[in-house]
Amino acid sequence: MAKAARRITAEEAAGLVRSGMWLDYGAVLGQPDAFDEALAARLGEVTNLRFRSVLTARPRAVLEADPEARHVHWFSTHFSGYDRRKHDAGMAHYLPVNLGEVPDYYRRFIDPPDIVVFKTAPMDERGFFNFGPNTLWMRALVERGKVVIVEETPTLPYVMGEGTGVHVSEVDYIIPGYDRPMAELPKAPATEVDKAVARLIAAEVEDGACLQIGIGGMPNAVCSLLAESPVSDLGIHTEMMTDGIVDLYRAGRVTGARKQLNPGKMVCTFALGAQYLYDFIDRNPEVEFHPVDYTNLPHTIMRNDRVVSINNTTQIDLQGQAASETDGFRHISGTGGQLQFVRGAYGSKGGKSFMCLASTYEKKGERRSRIVTALTRGNVVTTPRTDMMYVVTEYGMVNLKGRSIAERARALISIAHPDFREELERDAWEHRLIPRGFF
Known about the structure:
Blueprint: E1 6-7, H1 10-14, E2 22-24, H2 34-40, E3 49-53, H3 61-64, E4 72-76, H4 81-88, E5 92-94, H5 102-108, E6 115-120, E7 128-130, H6 138-144, E8 147-152, E9 160-161, E10 165-167, E11 173-176, H7 192-202, E12 210-213, H8 217-227, E13 235-237, E14 240-241, H9 243-250, E15 266-268, E16 270-271, H10 275-281, E17 287-289, H11 292-295, H12 298-301, E18 307-312, E19 315-317, E20 322-323, E21 326-327, E22 330-331, H13 338-347, E23 352-356, E24 360-363, E25 366-369, E26 371-372, E27 390-393, E28 396-399, H14 405-414, H15 418-430
Parallel strand pairs: 1-11, 2-3, 2-6, 3-4, 4-5, 6-8, 8-11, 9-17, 12-13, 12-18, 13-15, 14-16, 15-17, 18-23, 19-26, 23-27
Antiparallel strand pairs: 7-10, 19-20, 21-22, 24-25, 27-28
InterPro entries: AcetylCoA_hyd_C, AcetylCoA_hyd_C_sf, ActCoA_hydro, ActCoA_hydro_N, NagB/RpiA_transferase-like
Pfam families: AcetylCoA_hyd_C (PF13336), AcetylCoA_hydro (PF02550)
Keywords: Transferase
């Protein structure tokens, strides 16, 4: 017999928490607000609380109420800017993952959370609470959580697809959420460097290509250029639905007609951007949300032909290793789906993966090269040299597949900023990356 979910207040739900518990706040826009604020008021009364989350979009009351991290330990599988700041303050910790594997982690390796609490849209006529644009591993959380609490939020977009909701029979408690706008991700204007990189990538996108667009100015600039191009029948199979993809669709470039998997549908696992993105996905049958182990696993990605994967990195060495998530020992983001989409694109018939980066950056008033002889001490390799295909800066594009170490070094030096090429070549010779006599 199905259990009956009880409607209670956020304060009553927070009263269920005991010291030492593991709590899970779900993902991105689905992290709870009313429960979070009610629980923050109990800190000190309850202590040693551990939370899992991903990509925090708004400040968390429990963290703001515990600036010395005496009561709360925060674990994230991918940092937002907010998570990064809390990590810098010693209040948050990174959990290394390939994002597409996380549902399996919950089912096989992670102890069941004591309480799972997340936002949903109000219950529909079939008795389902929709996860909104946060499908990811929510089904696995519901399966594993000892207590499941949903925070009904009227402003959360209702999304279509598979694995997008939880039935009332699977829920223990229902609490009222806030009627407030969703958090938005500011869209930074494209720089001239972004545009230069985007032009090189856009020229490689063919009619009928299936796109994965990562987060950042360069991928968004690619979308803008493609929207103005004559390319047609593009498909979307991506991790994150972005503003740029909406713009590309509205320009008439996206039909999904040539996709082998989910033809005619834009497929993703979460969305984050401006309000017009949230309005676009709300009950839109052309956009399908799926669990992340469907969108991100390479053997699924490669089922579409001509997959084009576009991602950012922050540093690449002369052998082709990309460090995309750290600045030395400082963690700044996460592996996310980058490596899985690089591999999925390679396995796709006619597929291409692009790793893009500006040639330089400023640090402590000094201009530095992002293409380096060796990665910064402490930097984590996100995409190995063996997986690297196209690398793009504002100075050009090179393909590293099938190239020796010496050929890679020469190719990457050719797209470094001109002010650093001589030094890079000298270092490459000194460290025998380019051997003597190599033409």
